[in-house]
Amino acid sequence: MSAYTIVNQETCIACGACGASAPDIFAYNDEGFAYVILDDNEGSAVVPEDLLDDLEDACDGCPTDSIKMSEEPLLVESFD
């Protein structure tokens, strides 16, 4: 299974949970909001298989459900 991910920075509260769960996937911009390292938060990069458990932990731990995960590429517009 391929997995893609993106962070909705409009709803992110910069809590740090995703970076703690999946530091190889998520980092933080200058404002402290999370983004996906793999593709600069474009939702177009396949998450490596060895990081899928970390991604699921990050999704489950996000208090605002700002992290989206899909089997298809995601776009920022998908939050509208």
Question: Mind explaining what this structure looks like?
Answer:
With 80 residues, the protein is α+β, with helices and mostly antiparallel strands. It contains two helices and four strands, in the order E-H-E-E-H-E. The chain is globular and about 30 Å long. 28% of the residues are buried. The model has no long low-confidence stretch (mean pLDDT 94).
Spatial shape: globular
| Biggest sheet architecture | 2 strands, antiparallel
Give the neighbour order of strands across the main sheet: 1-4
Number of strands: 4
Number of helices: 2
Listing every helix as H and every strand as E from the N terminus to the C terminus, the arrangement reads EHEEHE
Mean of the pLDDT scores?
A: 94
Structural classification? alpha+beta
User: What is Rg?
Assistant: 11 Å
Q: End-to-end span in angstroms?
A: 26 Å
Share of helical residues: 10-25%
Low-confidence stretches: none
Note the beta-strand portion.
Answer: 15-25%
